[in-house]
């Protein structure tokens, strides 16, 4: 059965290299050996590795057993554009994985959601979700709102996304009715992701009525909803219709994830009112220096390094006695020219791998991986050999992080051994990582 699927998708060929043929038949031991041989000979280029990655990803999608099919399609969502052909073929199978492939193609802009409307009454909730994504026209309003009440959370989420797209296109027929239903969903839907999508759709609609609804939702919303509302306050459709006032109050008097999201969004706006910017910068700097562990890491990830007070807070955290905070702070200080060299030296010390034979320290390995990745993202090639050691880590997440770091260094081919990993999730996600590294290189050109 697997061989038939592979032939159908055109994954085999008489002119294929031994490595390609090994990938086609799923002979991971042979593929591993071929990659090692090519590396020893210095004959595996980034382009060759990308071609091999496409082959591996296509095979995984085509041959995954039913219990893993959805996961394998989801693993390639980041490189769906490059794998559009195989995802299109996977849609021919009317199962959950086929529906996941359709949604990936829609998200990648390779499939028009409007052509999927015929599935809005499908017996499968996965395929109904695909159909509902196309309900973006004015005349679809009744069907779209009805889908917001569907028994399946994936269908309800698609309905919220369709509403957001309809708002962007100016195709909402009855705005008041749409706003009411979205606000209700944001308040009572049992699924957090659906509540968040409802808030995003409200922000796309914007206007004074939406601002009023968002104020009400903030009062009893959980952290997820509040974070979405906080971002919404700074968006043009909301900020200019009364969102500036709650944004000003939020960054001046609140704390926690929602307030931090609002502060970061406000600090990024070029036209934000000076008092709001000042309060936002103060909140972010204060949190980076003295907040809870969760809030400090949250603020560090979002705060702009263009603000002097925030830079000072990063410098303070980089000199503390908490290794996790030190690494996070120095990773951001790499963006500051005056601080870059000092940050590189500090991260190099954390990035050093443990000596052979040393006791295993999982926390130290994890933090070292973060430091190595941070240095890779700025092209610091001295860490390449250390990163390659992570390809042998027993932790799948560290192996995948190493592949991404090698791609950032422009050495994606060195991550090719993961294409023959024993774990199908690692193989597939590593393949997508190599494909995305190739895309990034092309975009830089």
UniProtKB/TrEMBL annotation:
InterPro entries membership: ARM-like (IPR011989), ARM-type_fold (IPR016024)
One Pfam short name: HEAT_2
Protein name: HEAT repeat domain-containing protein
Provenance organism: Pendulispora albinea
Phylogenetic placement of the source organism: Bacteria, Pseudomonadati, Myxococcota, Myxococcia, Myxococcales
């Amino acid at each position: 059965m697997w061989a038939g699927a592979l032939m159908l998708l055109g994954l085999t060929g008489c002119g294929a290299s031994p490595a390609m043929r090994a990938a086609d038949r799923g002979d991971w031991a042979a593929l591993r050996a071929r990659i090692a041989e090519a590396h020893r000979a210095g004959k595996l280029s980034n382009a060759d590795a990308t071609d091999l990655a496409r082959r591996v990803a296509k095979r995984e999608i085509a041959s995954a057993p039913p219990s893993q099919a959805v996961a394998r399609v989801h693993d390639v969502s980041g490189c769906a554009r490059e794998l559009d052909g195989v995802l299109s073929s996977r849609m021919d199978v009317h199962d959950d994985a086929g529906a996941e492939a359709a949604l990936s193609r829609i998200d990648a802009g390779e499939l028009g959601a409007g052509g999927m409307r015929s599935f809005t009454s499908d017996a499968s909730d996965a395929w109904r979700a695909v159909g509902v994504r196309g309900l973006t026209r004015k005349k679809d309003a009744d069907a779209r709102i009805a889908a917001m009440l569907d028994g399946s959370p994936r269908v309800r989420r698609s309905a919220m996304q369709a509403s957001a797209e309809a708002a962007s296109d100016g195709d909402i027929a009855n705005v008041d009715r749409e706003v009411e239903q979205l606000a209700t969903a944001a308040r009572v839907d049992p699924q957090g992701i659906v509540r968040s999508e409802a808030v995003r759709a409200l922000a796309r609609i914007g206007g004074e009525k939406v601002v009023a609804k968002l104020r009400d939702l903030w009062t009893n919303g959980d952290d997820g909803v509040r974070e979405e509302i906080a971002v919404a306050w700074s968006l043009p459709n909301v900020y200019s219709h009364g969102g500036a006032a709650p944004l000003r109050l939020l960054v001046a008097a609140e704390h926690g994830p929602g307030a931090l999201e609002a502060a970061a969004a406000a600090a990024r706006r070029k036209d934000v009112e000076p008092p709001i910017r000042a309060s936002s910068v103060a909140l972010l700097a204060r949190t980076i220096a003295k907040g809870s562990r969760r809030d400090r890491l949250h603020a560090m990830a979002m705060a702009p390094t263009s603000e002097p007070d925030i830079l000072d807070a990063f410098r303070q955290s980089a000199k503390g006695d908490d290794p996790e905070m030190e690494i996070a702070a120095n990773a951001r200080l790499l963006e500051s020219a005056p601080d870059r060299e000092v940050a590189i030296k500090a991260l190099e010390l954390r990035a050093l791998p443990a000596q052979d034979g040393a006791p295993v320290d999982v926390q130290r390995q994890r933090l070292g991986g973060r430091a190595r990745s941070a240095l890779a993202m700025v092209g610091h090639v001295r860490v390449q050999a250390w990163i390659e050691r992570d390809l042998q880590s027993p932790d799948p997440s560290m192996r995948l992080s190493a592949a991404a770091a090698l791609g950032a260094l422009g050495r994606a081919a060195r991550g090719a051994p993961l294409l023959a990993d024993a774990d199908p999730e690692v193989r597939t996600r590593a393949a997508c990582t190599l494909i995305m590294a190739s895309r990034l290189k092309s975009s830089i050109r």
